[in-house]
Amino acid sequence: MPTDFDPSPMRPPLRALLFDFDGLIVDTEWPIYQAWSKTFRDHGHPLPLETFTKCIGTDFDTWSPKTHLENLTGAEINWPPLDAARQTSIEENLEGAGPLPGIPEAVQAGISSGLSLAVVSSSSHRWVDGWLKKIGLWDRFSLTVCRGDAPRIKPAPDLYLEAAHQLKLDPGSCLVVEDSVNGIKAAIGAGMPSAAIPNRVTSCCDFSIADHVLQSAHELPGLIAKLRAEPAP
Predict the structure, then answer these.
(1) pTM of this prediction?
(2) Dihedral through CA 191, CA 195, CA 198, CA 199, nearest 10?
(3) Phi, psi (5° rounding) for residue 145?
(4) How far apart are CA 53 and CA 230, in angstroms?
(5) Domain residue ranges of the chain, discontinuous segments joined by +
(6) What are the mean pLDDT values of the chain's consecutive 10-residue runs (233 residues total)?
(7) Which residues are catalytic?
(8) Does residue 30 contact residue 85 with C-beta atoms inside 8 Å?
(9) 16-27+99-229 topology per CATH
(10) Using CA atoms, how far apart are residues 110 and 14, in angstroms rounded to an integer?
(11) Angle formed by the axes of helices 158-167 and 181-190, to 10°?
């Protein structure tokens, strides 16, 4: 299948919602940021949100906090004990986490509108599928497309194009819902319209490249209704 898409200026009717996972369905990004921020503070350096958001929606190959901190300190760091402490902190802060406000209603609005729903994430299936089952949303989605299902992760368009391919839909008929700039870039590369819902980690980012910017997932049902009401080209 192709890994790039030349978008047509005319959009087909809306047929699917493609949700990111981390920071959109569940607020996993804030505990991860807090844990990394503590690691940086313990070594005498701050970790601004504007810096950390470089890796949101993608992976640490794009921007590595470990490399960044070692460059700041000018020394090699013994990472294994820090990794263990950070993972413990993340797990404790995520204990009992559920869907972010408005997500269950947005998912139901998509289903009620007859749209196909998928989760498309740069994270692993183990992480994404496990969380969806934990919060009771697993059976609400037609499929999940995660790291390893396509050659490249976000901000490349591959994962979103793979989702459209599996759903047998024109990419332009799929609305991408994202919380990160890297995710919006992936949607644009795939030729898909996008809606950004910034969270407390990514609220500092410039989402002007997105087709729609929402304050919360509570606004998504209204956007779905609006897009569904638009006349076909």
Answers:
(1) 0.89
(2) -100
(3) -120, 120
(4) 34
(5) 16-27+99-229, 29-94
(6) 48 95 96 94 93 77 87 95 94 94 98 98 96 97 98 97 98 98 97 97 94 98 94 60
(7) 20, 22
(8) no
(9) Rossmann fold (3.40.50)
(10) 10
(11) 50
